[in-house]
Amino acid sequence: VDRYSNNGQTAVKIFGTDDAKDSAKRMIEEVIQDRPSHSKRETQNKRPASPELIVVIPYNSPAPPPPPPSDAESAPAPAEPASTDPCTWDSDNSGAKWIEKRMASLPVLRKNFYEELPEVRDLSDSEVEKIRASKNNIETYRVFESEEEFKVPNPVTTFEQAFHNYPEILKEIKKAGFQNPSPIQCQAWPILLSGKDMIGIAQTGTGKTLAFLLPALIHIDGQTTPRNKRPGPDVMIMAPTRELAQQINEEAAKYSYRGIKSVCLYGGGSRQDQIAQVEKGVQMIIATPGRLNDLQRSGALDVSHVSYVVLDEADRMLDLGFEGQIRRVLIEVRPDRQIVMTSATWPAAIRRLASTYSADPIQVVVGTLDLTAATTVEQHIEIVEEDDKLNLLKAFVQNMQKDEKAIVFIGQRTKVDHVASDLALLYIPVRSIHGKIDQEDREEAVREIRSGEVKILLATDVASRGLDIDDVTHVINYDFPKEMEEYVHRVGRTGRAGKKGQSISWLTRRDWHMAEPLIKIMKDANQEIPKELEDMARRYKNRPKRPPTQGRRNGGGNNGYGGFSDADDFGGGRRKRW
What's the predicted TM-score (pTM) here? Predict the structure, then answer.
């Protein structure tokens, strides 16, 4: 709502319960009253913004209907027309009536496909607790409801216990060579096959993709409407990066189940080709939020019958600013859909999203809600000079074994290109991946390191969560990340699928403020803490504080906190010239 539309007046449509509508009315009136007037000059000089409709969604309620399409953009027509009559301030239950009318036009949704075997059902509470403790301390919670009308299913310990009714899926799992379900899979499969909403909190590389993907295949095949009569896809999976979306799509392709087709939609790929694939008929879409919004709003994609939604790495999507696009798409999805959210953390923004779109979800936490690095990764820390990094990398590459692969994370795109050029002069084959590299070249780089054609991949953080290469043996933090969360996700690129891995991080004097949180991460993962890192943390903690009146020039660098001097020694051997 803004002053550029209809001379400052905009109709506001409100759907939901009576209490929610009253609250919305009060909030809107508070927003618009006593606004300062703007001069004509200001209005003329300021570029008009596109009017936005404020939609207030009551806590844990079904999503409201979308606003009517504008003249410039036509929304896709639903399979059967549903009323979009506006709700007046005084109308009764119009939101509920709209939901009821829309639901009447949709086919019956099947969500429960789980048959719990007696050997799982009859486990005692102590046996269940023991299994969960042995699987990296799995914990389950009812996120919003205190009364457990639906008991959280017991965890499974074998693939057969989860998929005994689905021999084709069991065959594909065995073909992939997996021995046992991962911790997140043990608990997620019984929940999702039972048709319940779930929030999975686990670090990357823990098998989350298969945790939501295999139930999605069963969900698609189990619906009563024939596939050729469904107006659009049944499953919608959103991912924060094109790399992650592509990898989920590749994983889906491995488990060919009863002819189910998927398509990957992302920016940077051919829009026309993606639309053509959608028009041929697909049951599963895997997409980044931007391209998904583009195709849905243009009418090329109908998501009104989507009944299984996955928000993979939801915390990352919110960090990247996709919340508005996620909400716009979910408004179009049928209200009784099943929704799955995965995340490495549990911030307030994720809780708000879950409270709006999930129906009494079950939260599954693997490990801890605190930020932790995988215990399968051996973490090494070196305190170095900035100018030493390139020579250290050259020495590392020249000593790599034939079966080793490494991802090197570098802070800036330009530095990635410079390092790649320096290594190329030594005839060291490397590939690079960052935001300015064409999508086709990025895909080729990932293919080459997977195939072993190259052993070194240089990357910025654009790839820190998007890469899924099982046999990466080393991660090198050429530049230490600005946030510990990024450190955890970078390190998580190795030590995947039950394998061991190593990370090497080079810290300089600029990174001294990261020493203390890094020590905590390492202690939680039972890693050995270098003495020089402890010295750095102590130095930062005891740094002289800058008086409020002083500027940077009085602080000696490092944000005016005194910094280091050449006399400082952190025990770093030949790299202790501090």
Answer: 0.65
